[in-house]
Design brief:
single chain; about 280 residues; alpha+beta; Fructose-1,6-Bisphosphatase, Chain A, domain 1; D-Maltodextrin-Binding Protein, domain 2; 8-stranded mixed sheet; 5-stranded mixed sheet; binds 2,5-anhydro-1,6-di-O-phosphono-D-glucitol; binds manganese (II) ion
Amino acid sequence: MLAVLKAIENSILEISKLISSSGDFSYSDNKNSSGDQQLKLDLESDKIIEQNLRKLTIVQGIASEEREDIIYFENDKAEYLVAYDPLDGSSLIDVNLSVGSIFGIYKYSFSGRNLMASVYAVYGPRVEMVVADSTARLYRLIQGEFKFVRELKLNKQGKINATGGTQKDWSENHKNLINKLFQNGYRLRYSGGMVPDLHHILLKGGGLFSYPATHEQPKGKLRLLFEIMPFALVFKVANGGAIDKNGKFILDLKTEHLHDTSSVFFGSNNEISLVKEYYGIK
Ligand code: AHG
Ligand code: MN
Ligand code: MN
């Protein structure tokens, strides 16, 4: 496992250099399985990660948001499978907002129950990395090395409200929930990059991030294996919650396809209780 974490760390270092040195934020001619037009940077970041993980005999295979299928390496007895989003929020790269990378390390199969550890990186004014297994630990890139900063723990309640999806397509339940949060004094914080938006809540100690099911996207937008399962582990070990619109813990959801999506709510405990109340979940 340590070797996998090291390969991920090296990939993050390479991607951060690529982002800060590249002047080419243009799109490629390709779309990914979710129908998103891929940036050249999405594809280059994807390659960096593949090359680093391919060196390891303990990795059986990888799945990327930017590729249709699992890529198996020729390590039949290897335990680990890694699912990743090489560049999350990449459509924000041209406006110089923060973006990120997300990794889930699964054992034997890509399922929430088998998620052993997760890692995410935020490429902002600084580069930061969070590693989660039985705890969630924040590291900061200082003079070329990641230095441990602190453990992440959420308070019971926060002040941030970050919600996605097109508002005209929100359900009545979702509209009422969001109104209630604003009535309770929450502030809107939404950059459009899930990694910095969740990092914001985790570091400030609480709040709610939601990407709901909408009329247009009844299964939400965010992808289970690459995006929301890794963060569900982070929120769980940081004393928070991660549920879908039916109140199911994200890591208990089953995926039929690699690129399956789900509605999602990440937050501290009081906010997750409020979601359940407004969505009529017992
Ligand atoms: P990606 O860049 O990997 O496709 O992911 C973008 C995601 C996520 O970062 C963000 O929360 C969400 O898309 C934003 O979607 P909206 O523009 O619909 O708010
Ligand atoms: Mn993404
Ligand atoms: Mn992406």
